[in-house]
Amino acid sequence: MRKTNLGVSIAVLAVAMTAAGAAAAQTAPGSSDPERASVLDEVIVTAQRREQAAQDVGIALSVLSGEELTKQGITNVNQLQNATPNLEIEPAFGGGAAQFRLRGVGFQDYASNNSPTVGVYVNEVAYPVPVMTQGLIFDIARVEVLRGPQGTLYGRNTTGGAISFVTNRPSDTPSAGILAEYATFDAVKVEGFVSGPLSDNLRARLAASTQQGGGFQYNRTTGESLGDADRTGIRGLVTFDPSQDLTFTLDVHGGIDKSENEGLYLLSNLRTRGGGIGSVLIPADVDHRATGWGLSPRFAAEQGRSVNAKPGRDNTSFGTSLNVNRYFGDLSFTSISSYETLDRNEYGDWDSSASVEADTFFNSDVKVLSQEVRLASNDDARLNWVVGVYFSKQNLDERYSSDFIHIFGTYGQVSYAQEVKSASIFGQAEYQLNDVFKLIGGLRYEEETRDLNGFGSAFGGATALPPTTVSTEMTPLTGKLALEYKPSDDLLVYGSFSRGAKSGGFTTYNTGQVSGIQPFNPEILLAYEIGFKADPSPALQINGAAYFYDYSDQQVLSAVYGVNGPVGKFANVPSSEIYGAELEATFRPMDGLRISQSVSYKHGEYTEFIDLDVPASRAAMRAVFKDKSGDEIPFPAVSYAGSATYDWTVQNYELTADFSYSYRDDYPSWLGVKYDVPAYWLANASFTFAPSTGPWTATAFVRNLFDGEYDLTRNFFTSADIAQPGRPRTYGIRLSYQY
């Protein structure tokens, strides 16, 4: 690990320890109340824009606390997929572009310009550009994962669902804490916070986190390591209450990410195409930790990097938001103003070798300005409602460069500016028909325009497509209608119908033809769902849901056949469908023991779709089409997860043993069976020791306990068949101290 990285860790640690020493003592983490040991805690969420018990909300949702995120080592949104039913988040080619899929509703795109099917929010602020979601997750109170179309309560419209992070708020009394973790491959994580009142009506919280090291891969030729993290984030929250009915919350945050990328290993033998290393055969990697990289002098000079530079990033993010809440008796007014930026510089080696056959560089400048205003009822009357308006403006300036010098004898450059403007009005109302039935209805109208300005491409420095501008827009009317039946305090049954929409967009890959950047259409999803939430006893909770999705114009990554073979391009599937079910249970069979289980199943198929057959086209060296009507939509069918936690006391000490596991089914690929990702199991274990009344805890943990070998994604780019491996077994210790 570099000295500068260790210095950052020590600096964060020193700040938090100084704050901790000056604060007053609080209840120790890990302490328990024996009277509540066999009773499940009530989980409060804000999924419907007001505080409610999760069991009283007729929506399929999963909630993870900040403590659960820490236990499972989740520091990035991508890692939520092993802790949430029916959620997959696929990294694109080992880089920073997340590809979300929830209940089979997803969108595969390694570019930056298109919207995701799953909305990601932090403190109610949307992150509409997927690469913006790759910052550190820290100082989190909880994360809520909502499944199904969202739009009648949220600022943005999504077909798949929403992931909402809620950070810890400033406290009414002085408090501070520090957490430090060290694990295999010299992985270090340090978090600290200080919180408390500054005056009678002013409170503040400052939190910071840094993650360093942890690279488990190596260059198959030189032995150099790859994959070290080098990212730091900071967040400051200030809450001001000038009166009992008025609250201002200012959120200022930023991050720096200079991490190395995850490497890719070779699925098949790679015959390089000459150039600097000559024409050689690189055998497929038997060890999935092996990888390779290399830059041409021209490409390295253009990007300001060494020819021996490792794949990695140099990203800077900054954002701020102001949340204003004003109460007028039975009404509440909310205003959320936000501004988010990301400066992305990322190099990826997609041929996983020293040969220059698929080297890429993203230089992206993202700016998102948004304003949301809501007015809501503020009582427990039979009618509860919320109405709002939302406006956002996105600006993306991007240069995407590709070096194919050793395979095609050229290099490609793409540059463009994209502007997205969105304005919408939305609302939802709940009416209590009688003691057991509640009717819910919501609508959303949106006007969105997307302009791809000055898209130009060049190959070998020669213009292939002069700057061209294309546009698309959508004006969807979406909404929700639901009925809830609550015959007792221990049972909720619901049924709903929703209509969701996802923006159209543009394929911004290397192309020399205007047809390659013509917009694809928005997709429309009709969702039918029934579900229940039951508490048969204070120690048992069971939730389930079943759904059917009717898709129109589903957006899929397809391809067109170009001069050099198949080239990725998005297409609309005229008609498709998905159906599935989920079941979650939490049980406390005895004092101190808590067991959680979840299982999900989904199936999808195209009902009308003519598509390019990529494997056949590569083999025939010409365009070959296939009728995929009746074919399955490629995604994992089954996911399963569970955990068991046992707490007990020995004299004046609290001990906790925790074991969690997850299963991900086979992930078939539309590219052919070679790129199918095999099913895999993961298991984690930890043991925590803490004094009953003291401020510290000590934890020993193991992740990927059985050292399972698994892949996160498989793909090909030009000549190379590649895969990104998951992390092998790691173990470490975690110490925390809180006052």
Report on the architecture of this protein:
By secondary structure, this protein is mainly beta. It has one domain: Maltoporin, Chain A, CATH 2.40.170. It has 4 helices and 44 strands. The strands form 8 sheets. The chain has a 22-stranded antiparallel beta barrel. The longest helix has 19 residues. The protein is globular, with a radius of gyration of 26 Å.
- Unreliable residue runs: 1-37
- The fraction of residues assigned to DSSP E strands is over 45%
Distance separating the two termini: 31 Å
CATH topology: Maltoporin, Chain A
Structural class: mainly beta
**Major sheet details:** 22 strands, antiparallel, barrel
- Helix content estimate: under 10%
Could you say which overall geometry the principal axes of the C-alpha atoms support?
globular
The overall pLDDT average reads: 89
For the record, the CATH architecture stands as: Beta Barrel
- The helix tally amounts to 4
Whole-number tally of structural domains: 1
CATH class: Mainly Beta
Give the structure's gist in a few sentences.
The chain has 739 residues and is mostly beta strands.
List the topology elements.
Layout lengths: L2 H19 L22 E2 L6 E2 L7 E5 H6 L15 E5 L6 E5 L2 E2 L11 E5 L2 E2 L13 E8 L13 E7 L7 E9 L3 E13 L2 E12 L3 E3 L5 E2 L2 E15 L2 E12 L7 E2 L3 E2 L9 E2 L7 E2 L5 H7 L8 E2 L1 E14 L2 E19 L9 E19 L5 E22 L5 E23 L4 E23 L2 E13 L2 E12 L2 E12 L20 E15 L2 E23 L2 E26 L2 E16 L1 E3 L1 H7 L4 E3 L10 E13 L2 E12 L15 E12 L4 E8 L7 E7 L2 E6 L4 E9 L1
Parallel strand pairs: 7-10, 14-21
Antiparallel strand pairs: 1-2, 3-9, 4-5, 5-6, 7-8, 9-10, 11-12, 11-44, 12-13, 13-16, 14-15, 16-17, 17-23, 18-43, 19-20, 22-24, 23-24, 24-25, 25-26, 26-27, 27-28, 28-29, 28-30, 30-31, 31-32, 32-33, 33-34, 34-35, 35-38, 36-37, 38-39, 39-40, 40-41, 41-44, 42-43
